[in-house]
Design goal:
Length: 226
């Protein structure tokens, strides 16, 4: 038995050295990202603060795709959002994404940003969900949560958002109306690290496995996409 354990240990070490295993360091969103207003709002939260499953908790990971540091990359298939860092690293967040028929993919930019945004349901959402108000004021019970990043292509608002959620139990699932949801703590952290104009690459289904795909998409899009 001890011999078997030793062999397994050597095998694991070899895999790590060969780059077959990603280094993952789980880290909660830093408290420093929270403003006094954030703490006051989160203290009033009436939703159940469900712990996110470990695979979808905020983590520092190795990153081998070719997007530039500062870019946001959304891997809807695996329910991850990456904020690309220098030195082959990324901050990885777990997300909720849209159902297949409602999902967004493509290259966009952050065209607007808002803290504790109000929610104005689109005409399409009103058709699918009856009885919604014309708008919902910002706050912890608002479906957009603590922050919203509005995705634009050119000067056109795509109507898709990266935003917070008052349903953390769905992080890691595909149930939203196409928008990309994060826990309120994670979206506050992301918001504090990006700026208007940040490039957002939302990968097509099954695109996340190839490090070449997003580079070709960026090259093919030219400047007109932004």
């Amino acid at each position: 038995m001890s011999s078997l354990k030793a062999k397994l240990g050597i095998l694991a070490a070899g895999l790590m050295l060969s780059g077959c295993m990603q280094a993952t360091t789980y880290q909660a969103a830093p408290e420093a990202s929270l403003k006094p207003a954030d703490k006051a709002q989160l203290a009033k939260a009436r939703y159940e603060k469900v712990a996110v499953a470990e695979p979808f908790r905020r983590a520092i990971v190795d990153y081998h795709r070719r997007e530039q540091p500062g870019s946001i990359v959304v891997d809807s298939d695996n329910h991850y959002l990456y904020l690309v860092q220098d030195g082959g690293k990324a901050i990885r967040y777990g997300i909720t994404v849209g159902e297949e028929a409602l999902a967004f993919s493509g290259i966009a930019r952050v065209g607007n940003m808002a803290e504790w945004p109000k929610w104005t349901p689109t005409a399409d959402i009103h058709k699918r969900i009856e009885g919604l108000p014309a708008s919902v004021p910002g706050g912890v019970d608002n479906p957009l949560g603590a922050r919203a990043l509005y995705l634009y292509q050119g000067n056109r608002d795509t109507l898709f958002r990266i935003h917070g959620t008052n349903q953390p139990e769905y992080i890691g699932a595909s149930i939203s109306s196409g928008c990309i949801r994060m826990t309120n703590e994670d979206v506050i952290d992301l918001y504090s690290r990006v700026k208007q104009g940040t490039i957002v690459v939302v990968l097509d289904p099954k695109q996340g496995d190839s490090p070449q795909n997003s580079k070709m998409a960026l090259q093919g899009s030219g400047n007109s996409a932004f």
